[in-house]
Amino acid sequence: MFKFAASHELVKSNPFSTISKVRIESKTRFLSKIEIAKLFDSLKEEKQIYQDVVQILIYTGQRKGNVYSMEWKELDLGVLSITVLIINV
Questions:
Q1: How big is the CA angle at 23 (ends 22 and 27), to the nearest 5 degrees?
Q2: Tens digit of each residue's pLDDT (9 = 90 or more) over 38-67
Q3: Is residue 68 part of a domain?
Q4: Residues 4, 11: contact at Cβ < 8 Å?
Q5: At what angle do helices 48-60 and 33-42 cross, to 10 degrees?
Q6: pTM
Q7: What is the per-residue pLDDT across 1-52, written as a single tens digit (0 to 9) for each?
Q8: Structural domain span for residue 59
Q9: Is 56:62 a contact under the CB 8 Å cutoff?
Q10: Residue 11, CA distances (Å) to 1, 4, 15, 69, 84 in order
Q11: What is the dihedral of CA 36, 41, 42, 47, to 10 degrees?
Q12: Which long-range contacts (CB under 8 A, 24 or more apart) does 69-76 make?
Protein backbone atom coordinates (compact mmCIF):
# COMPACT_ATOMS: atom_id res chain seq x y z
CA MET A 1 0.00 0.00 0.00
CA PHE A 2 2.85 2.39 0.83
CA LYS A 3 4.54 1.42 -2.43
CA PHE A 4 1.41 2.49 -4.30
CA ALA A 5 1.12 5.70 -2.28
CA ALA A 6 4.78 6.58 -2.85
CA SER A 7 4.53 5.89 -6.60
CA HIS A 8 1.56 8.26 -6.79
CA GLU A 9 3.35 10.84 -4.63
CA LEU A 10 0.74 10.59 -1.88
CA VAL A 11 3.53 10.09 0.66
CA LYS A 12 7.20 11.13 0.45
CA SER A 13 8.59 7.62 0.73
CA ASN A 14 7.79 4.07 1.71
CA PRO A 15 8.98 3.57 5.31
CA PHE A 16 8.98 -0.20 4.78
CA SER A 17 11.15 -0.25 1.64
CA THR A 18 14.27 -1.36 3.54
CA ILE A 19 12.54 -4.16 5.44
CA SER A 20 12.80 -7.59 3.83
CA LYS A 21 10.07 -10.22 3.96
CA VAL A 22 10.42 -12.97 6.52
CA ARG A 23 10.66 -16.29 4.73
CA ILE A 24 9.07 -19.20 6.49
CA GLU A 25 10.09 -22.61 5.23
CA SER A 26 7.13 -24.89 4.85
CA LYS A 27 7.61 -28.41 6.03
CA THR A 28 5.74 -31.22 4.33
CA ARG A 29 4.54 -33.86 6.74
CA PHE A 30 2.75 -37.07 5.94
CA LEU A 31 0.45 -39.00 8.24
CA SER A 32 1.72 -42.35 9.44
CA LYS A 33 -0.36 -45.51 8.95
CA ILE A 34 -1.23 -45.41 12.65
CA GLU A 35 -2.38 -41.78 12.40
CA ILE A 36 -4.51 -42.59 9.36
CA ALA A 37 -6.08 -45.55 11.18
CA LYS A 38 -6.86 -43.32 14.19
CA LEU A 39 -8.36 -40.68 11.89
CA PHE A 40 -10.61 -43.22 10.17
CA ASP A 41 -11.57 -44.69 13.54
CA SER A 42 -12.52 -41.25 14.88
CA LEU A 43 -14.75 -40.66 11.84
CA LYS A 44 -16.92 -43.74 12.51
CA GLU A 45 -19.41 -41.62 14.45
CA GLU A 46 -19.68 -39.05 11.63
CA LYS A 47 -21.98 -39.08 8.61
CA GLN A 48 -20.91 -41.39 5.79
CA ILE A 49 -20.31 -38.47 3.42
CA TYR A 50 -17.63 -37.07 5.75
CA GLN A 51 -15.98 -40.47 6.01
CA ASP A 52 -15.97 -40.78 2.21
CA VAL A 53 -14.51 -37.32 1.63
CA VAL A 54 -11.70 -37.85 4.13
CA GLN A 55 -10.89 -41.25 2.62
CA ILE A 56 -10.72 -39.76 -0.88
CA LEU A 57 -8.48 -36.95 0.40
CA ILE A 58 -6.13 -39.39 2.15
CA TYR A 59 -5.98 -42.03 -0.58
CA THR A 60 -5.65 -39.68 -3.57
CA GLY A 61 -3.72 -36.76 -2.14
CA GLN A 62 -6.00 -34.36 -3.99
CA ARG A 63 -6.68 -30.89 -2.71
CA LYS A 64 -9.95 -30.45 -0.87
CA GLY A 65 -11.31 -28.08 -3.53
CA ASN A 66 -10.83 -30.77 -6.18
CA VAL A 67 -12.61 -33.38 -4.07
CA TYR A 68 -15.47 -31.03 -3.15
CA SER A 69 -16.06 -30.20 -6.81
CA MET A 70 -16.03 -33.82 -8.02
CA GLU A 71 -18.97 -35.03 -10.06
CA TRP A 72 -20.42 -38.54 -10.22
CA LYS A 73 -19.25 -38.93 -13.83
CA GLU A 74 -15.65 -38.81 -12.53
CA LEU A 75 -16.18 -41.94 -10.39
CA ASP A 76 -16.22 -45.51 -11.63
CA LEU A 77 -17.32 -47.61 -8.68
CA GLY A 78 -17.13 -50.79 -10.78
CA VAL A 79 -13.34 -50.63 -10.90
CA LEU A 80 -12.92 -48.25 -7.97
CA SER A 81 -11.31 -45.46 -9.98
CA ILE A 82 -11.49 -41.68 -10.07
CA THR A 83 -10.90 -39.63 -13.19
CA VAL A 84 -9.05 -36.41 -12.39
CA LEU A 85 -9.81 -33.71 -14.93
CA ILE A 86 -6.98 -31.30 -15.72
CA ILE A 87 -8.25 -27.95 -16.92
CA ASN A 88 -6.30 -24.84 -18.03
CA VAL A 89 -2.85 -26.40 -18.10
A1: 140
A2: 999 999 999 999 999 999 999 988 889 888
A3: yes
A4: no
A5: 160
A6: 0.60
A7: 777 877 887 778 777 778 888 888 888 889 999 999 999 999 999 999 999 9
A8: 32-89
A9: yes
A10: 11, 9, 10, 45, 50
A11: 110
A12: none
Residue 30: C-alpha distances to residues 2, 10, 27, 58 (Å): 40, 48, 10, 10
The 10 Å Cβ neighbour count of residue 62 is 15
**Considering the domain boundaries, does residue 42 fall inside one?**
yes
Structural domain includes residue 22: no
Does 1 fall in a domain? no
Q: Domain count for the chain, please give it.
A: 1
Q: Which of 59, 60, 86, 18 minimizes the C-alpha distance to 3?
A: 18
